[in-house]
Amino acid sequence: MTSQTVGEVMTPEVVHAHRATPFKEVVRLLDHHHISGLPVVDRDDKVIGVVSGTDLVREQAARDGGGPDRPVTAGDVMSTPAVTVHPEQGVPDAARLMERHGIERLPVVDEEDRLVGIATRRDLLRVFLRADDDIRRQVTDEVVAGELGLPREAVGVSVRDGVVRLDGRVRLRSDVPLAVRSAWRVDGVIGVINDLAFQVDDCEPHAVPGAPGRQ
Prior knowledge:
Blueprint: H1 6-9, E1 17-18, H2 23-33, E2 37-41, E3 47-52, H3 53-64, H4 74-77, H5 91-101, E4 105-109, E5 115-120, H6 121-128, H7 132-147, E6 155-160, E7 163-172, H8 175-184, E8 191-200, E9 213-214
Helix pairs in contact: 5-6, 7-8
């Protein structure tokens, strides 16, 4: 199954800060690079937090409200622990993670949590901006013919605005969730409607070959 990974869409050059980076320098970095946030790393380039514009506004509000007038660094205002992804993770998984946490940027880290890139919402959305016909062809070729090993015409595949509808009849009941999961993994798919029927219920101990059924 072909699916783009975070490593394929991320930006490898990352604007970042260190724990001791002064508050004003963080503001300057965000403004100069026109970004909404940046990761904070330690001496080994391991991600220890993230500073967003919201964090900076909150700190400034605390100062204006009579908070202590002291030197403030990225380490003081960063959000921690940072939400990160690995380069081999799929783009849909990263998009769901971003949506769940309500964030715009995901630091990409290696097995030792060292910063290797950044994935933005815009990077991930590019993957989902695929034509419906392209998605339909990939589902037909890689799911119906590839994963299920069926003739391409055995399962009807239609796509509208990224939502895939599967209808027709597969041989085994266990092929139905396999088809749905596989269709979900195709880049650009934002939903799957399952209208598949099956011939043999191989999920029951005493399945009767040839018995019709639906999931």
